[in-house]
Amino acid sequence: MLFRPASPLLRRAALPFLLAAGGAYAPVVLAAAGEAGDFSIQTSLPYLLVAGGGLAAGLLLGRISRPRPVPPPAPAPLSVSGAPPLSAMPPRPMPPGVPTTPWRDFVEIASDWPWETDATLRFVPVPDAPTPPSIIPPDTIGRSWEEVIVPELPPDFAIAHQESLGRHGPIAVTLTRRSATGEVRYLELRGRPIFDSAGQFQGYRGIGREVTDRARLSANLERNEERIHALIAYSTDGYWEQDANLRYTAITASSGHLADLAAEDAIGNRRWELPGESPDEAPWAEHIAQLKQIEPFSNLVFCRRDRNGRAIWLSESGIPVFDNRGVFAGYCGTTRNITDRVVAREQLQRDEALFRALFEHVPANVGRISVDDRWLQVNAALAAFLGQPAEALAGAGLDAVMSTEDAAAGKALRARCLTGEIDHYSRDVRYHCANDSMLWCRESVRLIPGRDDTPPSFAVVVEDISAVRDTLDTRRAGEERYRQLFELSPEATLVCIDGRIHLSNAASRRLFAADDTRALEGVAMLSLVHPDDRAMEAARLQQFAANPEQTGLAPLPLRYQRLDGECINAEATGVRMRFDGQPAVLYVLRDVARWLSAEQVLRESRAMYRDVVESVNEILFQTDGEGRVTFLNRAWRHTTGFDGRLSIGQSLLDFVADEDRSRVEQHLRSIREGYEDIAQFEFRLRTHSEGLRWVEATIRPLRDTYDHVVGSSGTLDDITARKEAEQSQRNLNLELEARVRVRTAELEASNRELEAFSYSVSHDLRAPLRAIDGFAQIVAEDYAPRLDETGREYLHRIRIATQKMARLIDDLIDLARLTRQAMKREQVNLSQIVEQILNELRQEDPERAIEIHVEPNLVAAADRALIRVALENLLRNAWKFTSRRDVAQIRFHAEMRDRQIVYCVSDNGAGFDMTFASKLFLPFHRLHGISEFAGTGIGLATVQRVIQRHEGRVWAQSTPNQGASFFFTLCH
Fold this sequence. Notes:
By secondary structure, this protein is of the alpha+beta class. Strands 6-5-9-8-7 form a five-stranded antiparallel β-sheet, with helices on both faces. It has a five-stranded antiparallel β-sheet with strand order 11-10-14-13-12, with helices on both faces. The protein has 27 helices and 31 strands.
């Protein structure tokens, strides 16, 4: 079979010709007649007529489906316009007797729109016509058909179209347009000529419609092309296609001598140009004249000779095919070998017994089914295949050999055959076979028409395809794997035949900047080589082709040119192979630009490594398995004074102080034997002239590519200065410890004096204050009637002042005690302490409306008593400064800042000006008057002392009348 890629005409013509191929099943019909015992020309004539009827039906359907220009069924004075509204155009006088109102009603509810031209083929307006769509050519009114329509037609169709216009015949064109959004849409115009009563041509009237949906549906038909190919493959007729020049573009043949006739030389030739034919002889002259009219033809009988010289009589039928624009695209049709028909007539009688024997003894599984889905007859092969005797199967239902669902599906298909919708079908279905197995089978069924005394039945052929399906699935999976391996290979791979590329993978397309998957196909391989290297590569390929014993091309770096002109470097290698039955070369190209770049980077890295190694102050060294030095950097000479070149080859232990040598040797042995992955230790190193120097060694095992320890490598850091500094530090620490003991004694004495002072203050100052307050109270109680209002006010002020002084003394004593109190850190739940303090404040002032938010489970390492003092001062300040708010808000929470926990007490109270924030934590400094808020000015100073003792810090942020936030940290 010779097959070429099918053109769009296949999709429109295949179905009619599959119907037309119905007559090819004459052998089955004749076999049915043979079984009935009346196997003669007279009895077989009706079945031959049925075959001819199938051919006629196929041709008729092809003619119906042919997109030929036909006149519209109901012409009317119509118009096309994309400019001003049609209602504004001057009406053209209507011919007498033509009704106007009825067709307008139909047009208004239809999707079509009318158009009209005058005798000079210029578009004229149609009165009261609906507005046409926006995709029609603009400004058509007043312009001619030649100006508006013909320029948009394909050149080949435009010539035939102008001939139709010249003879005033019906017209039909399809235009490709773009909408305002850029969408491709299709416009179809159909019309017929108008003549007056005297037979004079008056113009054209027609209908325009948008056929975008139909064009899109045609695209869906393309997706069924492969299915149609499969259907054609099972047709007993040969199928062919011709282009617009009537030259064969595709020929298939599946039976008889057609395979011998479908030769390669037929492609590209016309039917009458084949060997042994002449266009001036019958039947070609009449046939050529018919083809020029672009009309279908059927039963064209002619004779050819096959490769063995035998005369073969063929019958061809075909229909014209048009593209989606209505342009003639060629013919397609079927070829039937009718030689066997004559031979069958002559040998029908003597083959009757042969057909009967064939049915019984043919190795194929053949049977006959009744219209009520029962087996009428099965041959021996089918009975053995199903694992049941033929007698047991006769009269049994089909559901006994297949599932109920498959039997029902087959019954529906046979019902379609009985109604005449189809006359045969094939399907893949699973049968219950011998050994109680389920096998996939190809079931081919054809209707055997009934006669007066014989009901119709069905001939069935059951073919076991389970092995074929398994093989195809395995082969398909294997092909897909190999395709993936080839396509996804990271190396650019190409298959070349005769020096031209036939197959390329994705990596090769990326290498040569090919956007399309087929962009490299057919390109000469040498054309991609840079002109400077092309002659060298051509000579290499010529030598390779001349020496068949050479199986491959050695890797060779070459310069290539990408499709965009850019020059690239690649290493080319190749091997001989066979591809599609032809000798070929498999090329593999490796992009060496990355290698060249990597080499440059490696050189730069080595230079940088060398500079870094030689510039560091630490000694870098390597030793072999025996402990002999194999590498030293410049720091060795700077540190020890020994020449590095002379030191290489000596044992590292030769430069170690005698006291440290055994310890260093033990570490080196542990490294070499794999007991340590890294060793860090200090030892003394001999120098050339400066005595011993302390070094800190970091040594690791040196391994080869097999992970075997072959030596050691490491660094020696000169720490002599650090050792001297450490000794100085130890001496300084001893001195500082002595000073601390002296200062501690002095501080203890100062604390004792401060305690004595505090005791004196608490007793010597409180006694006079109590006396003043007491006598003032006595005067107020005993002499109040003798005093006027001013006197009583003075006494009240004296008492308030003395009480304030007493509180100040208490706060000072508490502040001094905080600095002396011993701290005891523990895990303290700050959230619980805050809640306890707030509960106490609520009990003191239960009438306050206040909203409190305490973040739970805030735990810190702190002194419980001291941190409670700090929190109580902060919370009492918040409670005090929110006293003038209708609804006070106090919040205690924590947040993370700079990897440190920051605690915060915030409120919505009076706030303060941040200008005075620097004096906020000083004793006795107040930012609010005593008349506004009570207090001594010691609370925040106390908070600062507590936080400082916890090695933290405290600060505040505030805005007047918008509240304040106090933040503090604790050292954990």
